[in-house]
Amino acid sequence: MEAIVQKQKQYFNNNTTRPLSFRIGQLKKLKSVLIRYEQELTKAISLDFQKGGFNTFLTEFTGLYVDLDKTIKKVGKWAKTRRVGNNMLNVPGSSLIIPEPLGVCLIIAAWNYPVNLTIAPAIGAIAGGNTIVLKPSELASHTSAVLAGMIRENFDPSFFTVVEGGIKETTELLEQKFDKIFFTGSVAVGKVVYQAAAKNLIPVTLELGGKSPLVVAPDANLKICIKRLVWGKFINAGQTCIAPDYVMVHKSIETPFLELLKKEITSSQFSLANQNYAQIISEKHFDRMMNLIPPEKIFTGGEYDRANRFLAPTVLINISPEDKVMEDEIFGPILPVLTYEDINSAVTFIKSKPKPLAFYVFSESSSLCKKLLNEISFGGGAVNDVLMHFSNDQLPFGGVGHSGMGNYHGEAGFRNFSHYKSVLHKPTWFEFPLKYYPYSNWKLAIIKRVIGL
Predict the structure, then answer these.
(1) How far is CA 238 from CA 290, 292, 332, in A?
(2) Does residue 126 sit in the same domain as residue 232?
(3) Among 90, 356, 380, 405, which is most buried by a count of CB atoms within 10 Å?
(4) Catalytic residue set
């Protein structure tokens, strides 16, 4: 691991990655390589999750191609030195902000979207002019193997390389002195990464998760709400960090809400056979899911097949805050439905939990939406939709508090992997004498006048 990092440091220190022409060239290469390996990666994802081609293209590749095109087009603008205003104390002179790459970056990726969540951070790192050590998740083993082969066969390892493996390899990587660590995964592992990085004062971006709430107001368009909720919650079998973790629906519309919810789940035809769904990633995660389901509180769903790691979309009712399903992020196809009568009590409940990665509200009331958006802290979210804020590269994506720190996508990704140097440039033909010794009261009086006192 040390040899890998040292080789990349040498490559970086030779200034190979700094020219815009190099960065754009590598981004274009990454896009062409992805297109070339798309079918192989799709097949690997099918082996890991039994996901179909349409499902995989929608959730794995669409965003990457859009992000790559945008970055290739805009990186020249993002990387420009920017002149900012000067103050009276530094006249004559000019003040500049100069973006520069951080250096050797470690990207530790998640398993739930093993292509998108692996490659998306790398786009920002390449645009920023860095080198990359990539650690795909070992849980999506088939996809990890294809990604590793793809990168090794097409990129100089001194610039972009892959380390496969599990806890042992990740631990060894975290002992190295990187210039940046980008981690996507659970809160528990995020804490381990953060502690390891602190030993060497390495800047860290943590993309974590949490219990993302969805509030349904009495005036919500239930038909649209249910359609978007079912799609967003159960895509990838609920294994999505920004999926609604639980719903808080107004007591007055609970019955029609549940009836429409059950109907929409049935009409969506979630099945591994028709490739409309996905497997739970492992038996360990499957067993964890099953332990969260109290059979007496199942409203619909609950069917399972452990051999195929299949768990049907499952809606739970009569849920209390003390139920096990309300303790930690579910990260699976289980949807607890809670009710509220007063919106302030719903806000209090949401705020009693760690800050979520996402928050959603369905309502036609602009004042209610404004109230919730102002009072609840969260990473990102949507009004009258779910998940789709992730698809807009002009919206920085990331968490807050327990749901993460830092963000990426589009220019935010470039900024994430860049340092912004502040530089004052002064000519030598003039000097401001008042700051020099010997100090005196008349000099102090002039300085105070200059700064407006």
Answers:
(1) 14, 14, 4
(2) no
(3) 356
(4) 207, 241
